[in-house]
């Protein structure tokens, strides 16, 4: 390796190390934070200048998105998403999505709890969480659209309204009430929420139509366009969150980057 290449490699390694330290500092501080967590506190805990945070992430919102992405990856949420979008039918996909979502709330609860508190008083947190919510809703729309294609939805529901129901019943506040305040635990909460969602969106008298296997890539691409129209840019998040690629393509050496 020549001197120029060696210098570039060192700078890249230093940048990755700094990024890791900042994310680690945010992960350590958040469980102890009451409401808003200033960028200055994160930078000080990581031992870097405040400007370094902006050099690495562009903004406090960029740091938050990167942190959420890091937590989702470390808790296995992206692996669970891959299973969702390998499902043979809409109901299986919906069950897997609910289980993945609610399980994540439980595994990441100290961070999720902070975000719930902070988004009420911190406009940056509120904006970024609204953005992630639009993408989560888009996933539910893709699954609800498949259920509509299969003829499984309640006659009174559209794909949009079914996604609204699924989204509302799988919010972290519902998990908090069931698993945290009432102490039911994550598995019981998953079961309760799954039965609630399927009970309100699926027509119990409808058998699944005999149609071709789900084209999840097409459905997720359509969902991503809906998210963009609502003001969220799926390109800002990990491909593992977006799940718009066919499963086989994602699995061929793709490195993780809502």
Note down, in words, how this protein is organized.
This protein is mainly alpha-helical. It contains 14 helices and no strands. It has helices at 3-29, 39-46, 50-57, 60-74, 77-84, 90-107, 109-118, 123-149, 159-169, 172-181, 186-201, 216-229, 239-242, 247-251.
List keywords for this structure.
single chain, mainly alpha, Arc Repressor Mutant, subunit A, 2 domains, 14 helices, 0% strand
Write the layout of secondary structure elements.
Blueprint: H1 3-29, H2 39-46, H3 50-57, H4 60-74, H5 77-84, H6 90-107, H7 109-118, H8 123-149, H9 159-169, H10 172-181, H11 186-201, H12 216-229, H13 239-242, H14 247-251
Helix pairs in contact: 1-2, 1-3, 3-4, 4-8, 5-6, 6-8, 6-11, 8-9, 8-12, 9-11, 10-11
Overall structural class, as computed from helix and strand content, comes to mainly alpha
Shape: globular
What share of residues is helical?
A: over 70%
Round the Cα radius of gyration to an integer and report it. 20 Å
Low-confidence sequence ranges:
240-258
Average pLDDT, to the nearest integer? Answer: 85
Question: How many individual β-strands?
Answer: 0
* Series of secondary-structure elements, N-terminal to C-terminal: HHHHHHHHHHHHHH
Supply the number of helical segments: 14
- Beta-strand share of residues: under 5%
Number of domains: 2
Tell me about the biggest sheet? Answer: none
Determine the N-to-C terminus distance.
Answer: 39 Å
Summed up, what is this model?
The chain has 14 helices and no strands. The chain is an all-alpha fold and 258 residues long.
């Amino acid at each position: 390796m020549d001197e120029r290449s060696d210098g570039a490699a060192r700078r890249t390694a230093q940048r990755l190390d700094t990024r890791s330290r900042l994310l680690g500092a945010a992960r350590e501080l958040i469980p102890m934070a009451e409401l808003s967590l200033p960028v200055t506190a994160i930078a000080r805990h990581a031992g870097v200048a405040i400007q370094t945070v902006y050099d690495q992430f562009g903004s406090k919102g960029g740091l938050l998105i990167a942190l959420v992405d890091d937590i989702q990856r470390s808790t296995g949420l992206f692996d669970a998403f891959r299973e969702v979008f390998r499902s043979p039918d809409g109901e299986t996909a919906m069950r897997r999505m609910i289980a993945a979502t609610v399980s994540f709330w439980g595994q990441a609860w100290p961070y999720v709890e902070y975000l719930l508190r902070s988004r009420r008083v911190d406009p940056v947190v509120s904006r970024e969480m609204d953005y992630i919510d639009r993408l989560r809703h888009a996933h539910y729309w893709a699954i609800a659209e498949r259920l509509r294609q299969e003829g499984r939805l309640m006659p009174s529901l559209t794909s949009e309204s079914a996604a609204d129901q699924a989204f509302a019943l799988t919010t972290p506040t519902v998990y908090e009430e069931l698993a945290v305040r009432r102490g039911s635990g994550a598995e019981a909460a998953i079961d309760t929420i799954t039965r609630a969602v399927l009970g309100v969106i699926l027509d119990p008298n409808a058998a699944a139509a005999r149609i071709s296997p789900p084209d999840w890539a097409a459905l997720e691409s359509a969902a991503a366009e809906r998210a963009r129209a609502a003001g969220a840019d799926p390109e800002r998040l990990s491909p593992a969150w977006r799940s718009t690629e066919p499963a086989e393509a994602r699995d061929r050496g793709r490195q993780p980057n809502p």
